[in-house]
Write a sequence for this structure.
């Protein structure tokens, strides 16, 4: 597991055969590899990752550098694009995914929260997946954690590799916002418990005096002495090799972006016992399709011979539709904007503090306050009869389900070079249970680096529901924002353009209003302006999922509850990509960890590995 050879542009050495081949060194795949290797060090495991190593690199271990991974020149993310047409305001929708060892765990915003029991129970009960309900998964959630927020909480674990805390720096004006929000919305509680409808401090998978707690460093790099755990970076997996219906290996290519002098040939490595695909929502369907597994129509279109007609491959794409609203902050407020702009003085001071104490801006993700927001019945009714109907059908009888996650971010979320150099905060949130479904399919029979045929499905199915939800979110968080002590106006280019004279306009407002100030009023024209803005700006929350669904084959499933790909042997799929059609209300890092733990347990049982 030597990261230094590929850092020098030298292709890694890959043997001819291993016991298990894992395609994808992201969150779930990394957990599987790490758990199996630690439990049975004699098991020869090969992890193939198309991106770079991340060992001790500051852009990964320092949470304050999260935004660097969203820059166009990044080498740690892959950007997937859709021409959205009218549904998305005729814009290009860009969805980034992790492309490095550790995957999303090494590049995301380090937020950590769990889904609710009924979300997992839906996987088991509605989609017929025995062993995937909350009762079975709860011990695995605890197994992953070392919870450092408070001791002796029976709902959390204290001996796992992933540390969960509040981070090494709390933005002072985030505390002001938290206090204000609790006073403004008195219907909602104000505790730091992990409950619904509490304004609270946000959990992170980073703790004081500790860097980002990702999968690469805590499941893989910490086993560098295990000579049977092999990790090869800069490798694209093209397809799976079969003998009969049994998977016996994979065909791979060098990633020419990182290894421009490497050969362009196809290479084969064999697996004695199993092949596991964990290459993510966008890449795993492509590996299956290039292997002849997928919809016969899609395969024929790409001149691929059908091996297994499995129409669900690449279908069922989901994400959490989000809205990002940016506000100007008091110039004296300490935000992460100077860090995101790489201002020399700010970076020097932050690096010095990090080196001395592991605290300061670089020890924080800038997301300190949030709420798991479940509308009260009167709020659901205010969104209109269509949303109220959905609320009564899907949420009313599942009191733990939370359709919104709202957070206060202490910086501008986006490319800092495209906005004025000042201090910002953002109100960010997503709808957790959208009805939209999209797809991801190949465009080439033999080029794993080719762009995918991506259709997000955003705003194309029952679209009025998501508009109603996101409009409510924008209005609610806007009222919070303009009461925040640090509020100094909206950043107009990133807000709706309301008609001249509109009572909804805040163009002249540069100071916070009192807590008891009247709410803004929106007329019919304002509602149309807001809907247009949502269509043109709403996008991904980086929670892509679902394209190899775990459900019965006749219902469009791709894998069964033991992760086996239908119609094959010795081939499994694991990761956030096989989420059931029922979405989950959480940041998906915790879900991907749990999936990895469950997959490792399933594989260990099948291989007869004890002591797991």
């Amino acid at each position: 597991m030597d990261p230094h050879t590929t850092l020098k542009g030298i292709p890694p050495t890959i043997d001819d055969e291993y016991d298990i081949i894992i395609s994808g060194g992201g969150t779930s795949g990394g957990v599987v590899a790490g758990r199996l290797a630690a439990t049975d060090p004699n098991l020869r495991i090969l992890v193939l990752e198309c991106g770079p190593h991340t060992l001790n690199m500051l852009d990964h271990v320092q949470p304050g550098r999260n935004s660097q991974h969203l820059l166009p020149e990044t080498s740690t993310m892959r950007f997937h694009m859709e021409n959205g047409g009218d549904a998305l305001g005729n814009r290009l929708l860009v969805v980034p995914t992790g492309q490095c060892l550790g995957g999303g765990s090494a590049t995301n915003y380090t937020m950590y929260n769990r889904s609710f029991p009924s979300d997992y129970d839906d996987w088991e009960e509605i989609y017929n997946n025995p062993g995937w309900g909350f009762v079975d998964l709860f011990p695995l959630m605890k197994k992953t954690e070392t919870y450092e927020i408070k001791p002796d909480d029976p709902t959390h674990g204290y001996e796992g590799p992933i540390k969960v805390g509040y981070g090494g720096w709390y933005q002072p004006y985030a505390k002001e916002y938290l206090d204000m929000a609790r006073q403004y919305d008195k219907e909602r509680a104000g505790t730091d418990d992990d409950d619904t409808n509490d304004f609270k401090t946000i959990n992170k998978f980073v703790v004081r005096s500790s860097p980002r707690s990702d999968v690469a460093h805590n499941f893989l790099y910490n086993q560098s002495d295990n000579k049977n755990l092999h990790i090869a970076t800069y490798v694209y997996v093209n397809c799976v090799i079969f003998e009969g219906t049994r998977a016996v290996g994979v065909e791979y290519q060098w990633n020419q972006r990182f290894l421009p002098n490497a050969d362009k040939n196809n290479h084969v490595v064999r697996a004695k016992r199993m092949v596991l695909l964990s290459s993510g929502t966008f890449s795993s369907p492509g590996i299956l399709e290039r292997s002849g597994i997928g919809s016969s129509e899609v395969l024929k279109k790409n001149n691929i011979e059908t091996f297994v007609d499995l129409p669900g491959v690449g279908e069922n794409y989901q994400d959490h539709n989000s809205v990002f609203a940016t506000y100007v902050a008091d110039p004296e407020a300490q935000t992460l904007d100077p860090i995101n702009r790489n201002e020399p003085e700010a970076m020097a001071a932050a690096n010095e503090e990090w080196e001395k104490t592991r605290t300061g801006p670089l020890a924080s993700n800038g997301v300190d306050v949030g709420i798991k927001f479940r509308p009260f019945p009167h709020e659901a009714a205010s969104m209109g009869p269509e949303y109220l109907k959905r609320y009564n059908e899907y949420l009313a009888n599942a009191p733990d389900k939370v359709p919104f996650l709202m957070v206060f971010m202490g910086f501008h979320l986006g490319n800092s070079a495209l906005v004025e150099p000042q201090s910002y905060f953002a109100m960010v949130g997503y709808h957790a249970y959208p009805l939209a479904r999209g797809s991801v399919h190949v465009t080439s029979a033999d080029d794993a680096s080719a762009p995918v045929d991506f259709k997000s499905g955003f705003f194309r199915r029952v679209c009025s529901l998501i508009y109603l939800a996101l409009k409510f979110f924008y209005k609610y968080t806007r009222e919070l924002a303009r009461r925040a002590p640090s509020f100094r106006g909206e950043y107009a280019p990133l807000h709706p353009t309301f008609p001249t004279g509109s009572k909804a306009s805040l163009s002249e407002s540069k100071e916070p209003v009192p807590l008891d100030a009247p709410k803004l009023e929106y007329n019919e024209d304002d509602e149309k302006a807001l809907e247009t803005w949502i269509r043109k700006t709403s996008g991904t929350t980086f929670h892509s999922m679902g394209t190899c669904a775990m459900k019965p084959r006749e219902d469009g499933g791709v894998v069964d509850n033991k992760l086996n790909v239908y119609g094959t042997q010795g081939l499994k799929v694991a990761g956030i990509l096989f989420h059931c059609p029922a979405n989950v209300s959480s940041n998906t890092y915790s879900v991907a960890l749990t999936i990895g733990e469950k997959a490792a347990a399933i594989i260990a049982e099948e291989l007869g590995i004890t002591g797991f």
Notes: The mean pLDDT is 89. The longest strand covers residues 267-277. The radius of gyration is 24 Å.
